[in-house]
Amino acid sequence: MNPLLNQLQPYPFARLREAMQGLDAPAGITPVPLHIGEPKHATPKVITDALTASLSELEKYPLSAGLPELRQSCADWAARRYDGLQLNPDTEILPVLGSREALFAFAQVVLDPTSDGKDIVVSPNPFYQIYEGAALLGGAKIRFADCHAPDFLPDWSQIDAETWQRTKLVFVCSPNNPSGSVMQLEHWAALFALQDRYGFVIASDECYSEIYFSGNKPIGGLQAAAELGRGNKGIVMFTSLSKRSNVPGLRSGFAAGDAALLKAFLLYRTYHGSAMSVPVQRASIAAWNDETHVAENRRLYQEKFDKVVPILQQAFDVQMPDASFYIWLKVPDGDDLAFAKTLWQKAAIQVLPGRFLARDTEHGNAGAGYVRIALVAGAAECVQAAETMVALYPR
């Protein structure tokens, strides 16, 4: 067995299940699952129609590089979304099976497995656990930059110069999971300055980029680089249809950016056997070409946030996120696990303790004292859950 597997920690939801063992919800109450970020809005018909219309193409072996039409639709979408961002569909776009597998696989391309643990990956904290698994199974060490109030963005100053000198890869997540915070142009400029000094690669996880509010479109990493006149050398952006288009089961997204990195990534993926089936590619083309369903998706989330946040503010220190479908709620007594247990035992409401999304560092656990609430259930369910939380924890 690969000994590096022993370094992997249980996923947050496995830790939550273990913590809840022996704790029962009240009888007769239907559970309200707000702990998992799985979209529940209906899959758009434009996507399902394209998928079913192309099922005859299952007889074809797909290419790892994807259909030229898909790469072009991704490039066209990026140009529309990111203020004219120009990407070469032949060299700077690569279809992937959702951002999760691509983020993991990309680290295996960047890291040196013969470095005997000398390579370092830097990650936000709290973070998406794939970053950690990718680093450890790539033979690297992982170091964390904590995200604290008020902006919940990574504090890069926590990483010392010696660590930066060994850093090969930096994961960023904007909009952030779990806080929904968004890096602005000045934050990107600060990270690019560190990249220029130390020469690491940036993997920009942007899978929540299309769930934003009041027209405030989050800036992307490649867009920021273009606006700062630096090109995309050393930067790869990862995005997905899962949240944008409510198709987490489609497993479709794309990576974009540095052509040299994507050339190596394509070589890796060719051996990895991660080509996207042709019907999924056809459905993806339809999805990237259509914005009507995306606008409706944002409207549904906006409606939920507009109703839920004011209710929660009656009892909790909580703000509207910049983007994403998460609420990063500060619990009254600082014990996020006890808070989650109480909600489950008294009201069958499931939320995710922040400590399970973070790692302990010399500065403590950056997720402790918060819970992540995913507003993926229906509006009525979300409102009722918020009202119940306020009733259980009156200010």
UniProtKB/TrEMBL annotation:
<dbReference type="Pfam" id="PF00155">
    <property type="entry name" value="Aminotran_1_2"/>
</dbReference>
<keyword id="KW-0808">Transferase</keyword>
<dbReference type="InterPro" id="IPR019878">
    <property type="entry name" value="DapC_beta/gammaproteobac"/>
</dbReference>
<keyword id="KW-0032">Aminotransferase</keyword>
<protein>
    <recommendedName>
        <fullName>Putative 8-amino-7-oxononanoate synthase</fullName>
    </recommendedName>
</protein>
<dbReference type="InterPro" id="IPR015422">
    <property type="entry name" value="PyrdxlP-dep_Trfase_small"/>
</dbReference>
<dbReference type="GO" id="GO:0009016">
    <property type="term" value="F:succinyldiaminopimelate transaminase activity"/>
</dbReference>
<dbReference type="InterPro" id="IPR015421">
    <property type="entry name" value="PyrdxlP-dep_Trfase_major"/>
</dbReference>
<dbReference type="InterPro" id="IPR050881">
    <property type="entry name" value="LL-DAP_aminotransferase"/>
</dbReference>
<dbReference type="InterPro" id="IPR015424">
    <property type="entry name" value="PyrdxlP-dep_Trfase"/>
</dbReference>
<feature type="domain" description="Aminotransferase class I/classII large">
    <location>
        <begin position="32"/>
        <end position="375"/>
    </location>
</feature>
<dbReference type="InterPro" id="IPR004839">
    <property type="entry name" value="Aminotransferase_I/II_large"/>
</dbReference>
